[in-house]
């Protein structure tokens, strides 16, 4: 499992971001994009300007915001990015036309003078800094640094990326064997996106002690980032108001309740029984073919399939539990922390996979794959 940052470094970065980020509600009639051509010293820069009768804000456009602009303006992604790379002036004309032709109200989220998200005006802001101020003191009273343990709760991994905040904890007092010598530790995780990529989640998390792999199981709490629609004639900055504070308090209260519910012996024993059951389902066909079918089902890349196959063979456990652990072990091989966390979630899906889907994997043969591809 990737460990990410130390808890201290995470706190410092979230505090910095809280002071550096700004949010706006803007009518797209008052948005313009432009391009600064590349030079030998600097690469091409694409800018977003918010212009009103008495103010102007100019910023770079981030990767996620580019994708959201393309989606919102119904410009096919491949064509959008081809224009950016090969015909930037055409890109600017197209985007400006569609921003102005049918104006609408959008939320623009910025960080470090860069547009990081282009969202619905009803997007519900749940900020990472505020979230950690509730979760961390609740589970780690007297936080002193990374891998700090208090009352049996330990931070196993944490990170903030361009798209997500990740927090993962283990309860050192909740352990059990899936198979002889294969001990797992119960825990929970929190994931949030400030840029509109998915729901806010509190989920059941497992740490496998024999190899320190992590696995996400889809038990817990999900909250859609949906709030009240906002309007603007030009553009205006958004601040925390009483309404947002009350909505945050409700989410944080529910978060506390869910965390408490996931940290019980009964919940762990129920989960442990499902894990033990997964050791009884075995691969019956061709192992490389089985991994290929798995890759098709859960959208693994070719490199990820190769890594899963390697770890599956090295582990020597061809049960559903073994396949799931091969996936979570492959998470350590990818560079992206976000993708590693997705693979930990895929490992959890394998453990809980319904019988028809598992049978497609378990009974796969190279001959069947060839027939399907033809």
Question: What is this structure, in a nutshell?
Answer:
The protein is an alpha+beta fold and 374 residues long. The protein contains 13 helices and 13 strands.
Index terms:
seven-stranded mixed beta sheet; 374 residues; six-stranded antiparallel beta sheet; 3 domains; 44% helix; alpha+beta
Structural class: alpha+beta
Summed up, the domain count is 3
Q: Output the number of helix runs.
A: 13
Determine the N-to-C terminus distance: 38 Å
User: Beta-sheet strand percentage?
Assistant: 25-35%
- What's the overall geometry? globular
Would you list the SSEs in sequence order as H and E?
HEEEEHHHEEHEEEEEEEHHHHHHHH
Name the strands of the widest sheet in spatial order: 2-3-4-6-5-1-13
Cα Rg: 23 Å
Assembly state: single chain
- Can you give the helix content as a percent range? 40-55%
The biggest sheet, with number of strands, parallel, antiparallel or mixed sense and barrel status, is:
7 strands, mixed
Explain the overall architecture:
By secondary structure, the chain is α+β, with helices and mostly antiparallel strands. The chain has 3 domains: 20-120, Beta Barrel (OB fold (Dihydrolipoamide Acetyltransferase, E2P)); 128-227 and 237-271, no CATH class; 279-373, no CATH class. The chain contains 13 helices and 13 strands. The protein has helices spanning 7-20, 63-72, 77-86, 88-101, 128-139, 242-262, 265-278, 287-298, 302-315, 320-330, 337-351, 355-362, 366-373, and strands at 21-27, 31-36, 45-51, 56-61, 105-111, 114-120, 149-150, 153-160, 165-179, 182-192, 200-208, 213-223, 235-238. The strands form 2 sheets. Strands 2-3-4-6-5-1-13 form a 7-stranded mixed sheet. Helix 8 packs across helix 9 and helix 8 crosses helix 12 (355-362). It is globular. Residues 142-150 have low confidence and may be disordered.
């Amino acid at each position: 499992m990737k460990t990410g940052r130390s808890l201290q470094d995470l706190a410092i970065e979230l505090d910095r971001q809280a002071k550096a980020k700004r949010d706006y509600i803007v009518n797209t009639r008052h948005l313009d994009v432009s391009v600064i051509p590349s030079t030998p010293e600097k690469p091409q820069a694409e800018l977003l300007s918010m212009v009103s009768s008495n103010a102007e804000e100019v910023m770079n456009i981030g990767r996620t915001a580019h994708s959201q602009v393309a989606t919102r303006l119904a410009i096919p992604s491949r064509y959008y990015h081809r224009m950016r790379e090969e015909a930037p002036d055409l890109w600017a004309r197209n985007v400006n036309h569609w921003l102005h032709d049918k104006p609408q109200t959008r939320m623009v989220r910025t960080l470090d003078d860069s547009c990081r998200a282009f969202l619905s005006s009803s997007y519900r802001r749940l900020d990472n800094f505020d979230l950690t101020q509730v979760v961390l003191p609740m589970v780690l009273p007297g936080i002193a640094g990374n891998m700090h343990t208090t009352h049996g709760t330990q931070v196993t991994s944490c990170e903030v990326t361009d798209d997500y905040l990740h927090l993962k904890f283990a309860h050192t007092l909740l352990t059990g064997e899936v198979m002889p010598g294969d001990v797992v530790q119960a825990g929970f995780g929190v994931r949030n996106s400030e840029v509109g990529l998915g729901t806010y989640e509190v989920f059941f998390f497992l740490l496998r002690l024999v190899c320190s792999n992590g696995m996400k199981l889809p038990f817990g709490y999900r909250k859609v980032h949906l709030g009240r629609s906002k309007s603007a004639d030009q553009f205006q900055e958004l601040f925390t108001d009483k309404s947002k504070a009350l909505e945050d308090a409700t989410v944080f209260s529910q978060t506390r309740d869910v965390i408490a519910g996931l940290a019980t012996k009964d919940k762990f024993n129920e989960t442990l029984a499902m894990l033990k059951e997964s050791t009884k389902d075995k691969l019956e066909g061709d192992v490389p073919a089985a991994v290929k079918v798995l890759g098709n089902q859960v959208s693994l890349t070719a490199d990820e399939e190769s890594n899963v196959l390697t770890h599956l063979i090295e582990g020597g456990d061809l049960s559903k539990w073994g396949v799931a652990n091969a996936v979570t072990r492959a998470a350590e091989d990818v560079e992206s922390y976000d993708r590693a966390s997705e693979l930990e979630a895929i490992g959890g899906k394998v453990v809980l996979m319904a019988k028809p889907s598992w049978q497609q994997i378990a009974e796969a043969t190279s001959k069947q794959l060839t027939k399907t591809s033809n």
